[in-house]
Specification:
This protein has helices at about 90-95, 100, 105-110, 135-140, and strands at about 5, 15, 25, 35, 60, 75, 85, 115, 145-150, 160-165, 175-180. Mean pLDDT is about 75; it is low at about 1-20 and about 120-125. The chain has a single domain (about 5-180), classed as Beta-Lactamase, CATH 3.30.450.20. By secondary structure, the chain is an alpha+beta fold. It has four helices and eleven strands.
């Protein structure tokens, strides 16, 4: 049985989403491969599905098909917002490698400063007073798309980007952060 998926808007409410094709979309944070699948697990086991292209051990389920820009950077985080993996494009955007950041809070590692225009009034405030899409995604399990952010990664020059944040719809929780340089 699929858990109810939620969406934000003018007030938080639960919505049961139906996929247009009847099957969910998945995206791999390691290679950016998108695919459709009628199963969330591999074969007859309860083991989560892995990427059919690169073999990455986990992929993210999406509400609809998502096409990241070719230069987009992927970061996978756990339910507490700590980095699990620097995926495709992450090193190119920030100069950070997995071994430098795994287990550290994504907000600290990337020095994220959210810019205005967030349409989710319930979002917990970030340190600069702006709403924090990462906090919203972790707390409410909703997507936050098209959020403007300044990335101040360690040892790198500040860069403007657009952030898309996707929740993990599994028992472990977590999120996928996709940053597209402006």
């Amino acid at each position: 049985m699929k858990p109810p998926l939620r969406r934000s808007g003018s007030g938080e409410r639960r919505v049961f989403w139906r996929y247009a094709s009847g099957v969910p979309f998945f995206i791999c944070p390691n290679c950016g491969n998108r695919e459709l699948s009628n199963s969330r697990t591999a074969g007859f086991s309860n083991r989560p599905k892995s990427c059919s292209k690169c073999g990455a051990g986990f992929i993210f389920e999406l509400l609809d098909d998502y096409y990241p820009a070719p230069d987009a950077a992927f970061f996978t985080c756990d339910k507490d917002g700590r980095v699990l993996d620097v995926g495709r494009g992450g090193f190119e955007l920030t100069g950070l490698k997995d071994e430098d950041v795994i287990g550290r809070p994504i907000r600290d590692v990337l020095g994220l400063e959210w810019k205005g225009g967030d349409d989710v009034p319930e979002a917990p405030p970030a340190e600069n007073g702006e709403s924090d899409p990462i906090g919203t995604t972790l707390e409410w399990g909703v997507r936050s798309l098209g959020k403007r952010v300044q990335v101040n990664a360690e040892g790198d020059l500040p860069a403007e980007a657009v952030a898309d944040v996707f929740p993990a719809y599994d028992d472990d929780g977590g999120l996928l952060l996709v940053l597209t340089p402006e």
